[in-house]
Amino acid sequence: MGEYINAFVTGGVLCAIGQILIDKTKLTPARILVFYVVAGVILTALGFYEPLVDWAGAGATVPLTGFGYSLAKGMEKEIAERGFLGIFSGGLTAGSAGIGAAIIFGFLAALLSKPADKS
C-alpha cells in the first residue's frame, strides 16, 4: 500500500509544481513541458532522479520528468554499448515506445472524435 501512496504523492507534487508555474509565472505550458523533460535529464545525470524512481515508481516515471529520465538512461546504456554514437541513438531508442504510442493513440482519437467549429 505504501508504494501507491509514494507514487500518488510524488506524481501529485510534480503536477502541483507545474500548475503553480502555469498560474504564477509568464511561462507558457510548452516551456514548462520542456523544462520538466530537461530537468528529468539533468537530475538523472546528477544521480538524483534514480533514487526517486526507486522510491516512487510510476509517480516519478509517468510525468514528463520521467520521460527525461528515460531519455538519459537510454543514452547512458547506448553510450556504454556503442560509444560516442550512443549519444544519437540512445534517447530515440529509449523513448520510441512512448512516442509511438502517442502517435497511434492521437491518430485513433482523431478518427473517433467529431470535429466541430469553435465559433
Distance between the termini: 48 Å
Biggest β-sheet: count, sense, barrel? none
Poorly predicted tracts of residues: none
| Average predicted confidence as pLDDT | 90
The radius of gyration is 17 Å
Number of helices: 6
Mass-distribution shape: globular
How many separate structural domains? Answer: 1
Strand residues, percent: under 5%
Q: H/E element string?
A: HHHHHH
Describe what you observe in this structure:
With 119 residues, the protein is an all-alpha fold. The chain has one domain. It is 82% helix and 0% strand. It has six helices and no strands. The chain has helices at 2-24, 29-45, 49-56, 58-61, 64-82, 86-112. Helix 2 (29-45) crosses helix 5 and helix 5 runs antiparallel to helix 6. The radius of gyration is 17 Å and the shape is globular. The model has no long low-confidence stretch (mean pLDDT 90).
Topology:
Layout: H1 2-24, H2 29-45, H3 49-56, H4 58-61, H5 64-82, H6 86-112
Structural features:
119 residues; mainly alpha; 82% helix
Task: Write a brief caption for the model.
With 119 residues, the chain is mainly α. It contains six helices and no strands.
